[in-house]
Automatic annotation (TrEMBL):
Residue ranges of the region described as Disordered: 20-55
This protein's record includes keyword Repeat: yes
UniProt keyword list: Repeat
InterPro entries in alphabetical order: PPR_At4g14850-like_plant, PPR_rpt, TPR-like_helical_dom_sf
Originating organism: Lactuca virosa
GO molecular function, one term: RNA binding
UniProt-recorded name of the protein: Pentacotripeptide-repeat region of PRORP domain-containing protein
PANTHER family linked to this entry: PENTATRICOPEPTIDE REPEAT-CONTAINING PROTEIN, REPEAT (PPR-LIKE) SUPERFAMILY PROTEIN, PUTATIVE-RELATED
Amino acid sequence: MEGLCNLFLPSSTTVHLHHFPANPLSNQNHPSLKIKSSTVSPQSQSQTSTRKKHRDFDEKYLFPSSIPIHTKNPIAIYKDIQRFAKKNKLKEALTILDYLEKRGVPVNPTTFSELIAAVVRVKSLSIGKVIHTHIRINGLENNEFLRTKLVNMYTSCGSVEDAHHLFDEMPTSSVYPWNALLRGNVVVGGKNHHKILETFSRMRESGIELNVYTFSCLLKSLGGSSALYQGLKTHGLLIKNGFIDDSIVTTCLIDMYFKCHKIKLARQLFEEMCEDHRDVVLWGAMIAGFAHNRLQIEALDHFRLMLKQQIPPNSVILTTILPVIGEISYRKLGKEVHAYIIKTKEYSKQLPIQSGLIDMYSKCGDLMSGRTVFYNSNERNTISWTALMSGYAANNRFDMALKSIVWMQQERFKPDVVTINTVIPVCEKLKALKSGKEIHCFAIKNNFIKQIGITTSLMMMYSKCGVHNYSIRLFDHLERRNVISWTVMIESYMESKRFDDAINVFRSMAVSKHRPDSVAVSRIFRVCSELRAVKLGKELHGHVLKKNFDSIPFVCSEIMKFYGVCGEISTAIRVFEGVPVKGSMTWTAVIEAYGFASCYQEAVDVFNEMITRGFLPNRFTFKAVLCVCERGGLVDEALRVFRLMTRRYKVEATKEDYSSIIRVLKNSGRTDEAERFSRLRASL
């Protein structure tokens, strides 16, 4: 598809998924802003052809409004290069370097240090190698300070081989090059802690004196790989070497234990630390650790404790705590945090915090406040637009979410991978097949399709839109499959009622390197329920027991419903009784199992027992009980359950709930009451 991708919305709004120029904010090179119908003279053609030819460098091209570069002293030139480096304008800096090289003017190590730091920020390996060449030309290749910086640069840019090659040529008496090598491996990421451990072992064998920075790099790597055993050994080494009282090391240890899901050990380390040494970074590690392990209440408790000790939160803590507030819908605290952000003024201008506020308000159901934050911001970016789009989707404003992709491009912001991953489920909900296809096209053109998350979202979207063949094609062309893609393929066949094919996919998955997880098993139990496949279901039940999935609520729920559908209610009851910790989901499942087995009064009795034992029924529980009463003709029980739902438990009745009550009343001949409920339903 050439040119633009036009995305037509249900409301006839057109989405343009553009190809963006290298600098989207520059109007000078954009063809759409230079539309003129004038005749081009031969002279201008000659000038144009001349401009296309390569021009030699001249000072006027670099500094048109300043004094000529040759009249400046070297210190002033170094400052010019450093200024460009700090702004990440490396091409301009390299132009000056070339100019100085031609005239034999040397460059000092501090200037090269700034250039290397800029390369690390922009992750440009090719420019980094050019700067390395200039360092050699200036005779600074043996400078230990620059060599250390270069090792860090190569590892940060992903060229570990170049980093090791340069490191092997260096004298290994100093700790700093070793630390640079360690840090580079951490920046590269991934579960590569074995390489870092190997480097760390070589350091100790060479007699290098380890410092705090060495251990902090090691602990970050171990935490990222969840290597608990090695982390415990490192903890012992820290105690042995007397580093355990250092706040930086303690913070890294706490972070490592949280990432290894050892909450008690992290909490113990924090409590053992003197209160005077608990700085904002340590508090931030605790709050982020609890949030990472989905312990939202504990994260909020520590946030309050930090404030009580008169430690003001920094921007990192604020961006961590806002999603936590959104997840538990604590809007009041969210507004208090928002007030603090406005009061500080500095934080209110930061885009990550603005995006966090939009996300928090959206999750709390206050979309208006989220929109207010967004439209009152002086500056926006792709992340803030994606946060608004996600907020619309979370509040069922799917049409507005899809329109947002138009508006963000009108402000010259290009959708990224996260944006596309957000908007594909919106197309799925709206069943907007044309829009989904055009977003698929945009993903292909921008090389997003290699992201397995994008592909699986597209598969799900096509299956919901009834184009199952597209889902199959995407799945067949996946270079790297994972458990999620296999599960989505099963769901796709389920959506198109091709249950036998879904079972075949599950069997293929079982013999692949991606073995079925709890989600895949729960999906295939639904297939067994549809097919009444008792034998296969019992085999799956054995697999569940073998893999210890029987303690997972949604798996047990599907098993109970399966046995209820197949008429084996006694087995469903045994499964229910074997669940160690029962909740609303498991109670609802056993009620549905009784209903599937036509034991309607028994289902209502289980519901009554659930309430008696203090369990809180939710919307899905009431829906299941009302369906049971409708099928069993239990009109009085249906009315009682409806009153419980709306009056005692304050659950808002939906049109579907009213329809269920109306049908059961009409079937029992109570037409006057049915008419009254019909009027109530019409008023919704």
